[in-house]
């Protein structure tokens, strides 16, 4: 692959520094882009991540040996300069920049280019080589303004409340749930109830310094010793798996929604069995992906975790040295599927799309350069 980065059975490897990035098998030293389970695996000897990511990893993985690194504060291991930079994906997520003898590579992890108000905002980094996710790497995926989507969710909740119904939304415990909580509380939605898995993550993030609105405790399960009654017409945030469970049924009559980039596809909404789908993703969309790849100025681009072959072919046709990078990150929390296996109704590379985004002519980037 390259002298600075190569692929081994354990994952992406930097031989000069003798460490791995988001490895999927246990290794001695791991740099971790963010705390989602498909990137932050158990069993490594030592972890290096941002403060927020390390806090969530300790909550999820138990006792681990790890150190945190602030954004933009480089460390040198052997002769490789390593630094973390905001990825905008979820709180604590990072791009990882590696520089050695004038050569620079950036591993994006998962990222999005719109500011969600909680994660440190993404900024492209100039580099010679760029490893990019492409979860939604097809022209059909173009996100609406997230502020408008949050307004739509708030209006949906008000309509349900007027009909005497609770509003349940499937949202992943790290990232999407906090984004919805902050955005909807600011719009006067109340009460907001969250599943225990979400609230446990909220507590970790609050302890690590992230300001989040307070939530209302859920009611106890119905039974002979009934607990507190369910709050009237709440908005409820829960992991997708909890939407069809006894925990969800305690709220009585309810409408079910789901917030994800995959809600852009009608078939996926049907398979989820939800009444309302909201297109809100923590991953970059097609225009953002094209703008980012151009802004890095990278001579070599490797696409992973998504529509890898379609993206590589698109950029090869633009004269970029691009290729798919087959990885084993596992099940992605946004897609609910293994990488490189998007839902069956996702357009294929040969499926006609609304149009084809061209990379911007101006490939300038911030001064965070080589």
TrEMBL record:
Gene Ontology MF terms in the entry: RNA endonuclease activity
Biased composition (Low complexity): 353-370
Region (Disordered) location: 324-370
Biased composition (Pro residues): 340-352
Lineage top rank: taxon: Bacteria
PANTHER family found in the cross-reference section: BLL1145 PROTEIN (PTHR11203:SF49), CLEAVAGE AND POLYADENYLATION SPECIFICITY FACTOR FAMILY MEMBER (PTHR11203)
Protein name: Putative mRNA 3-end processing factor
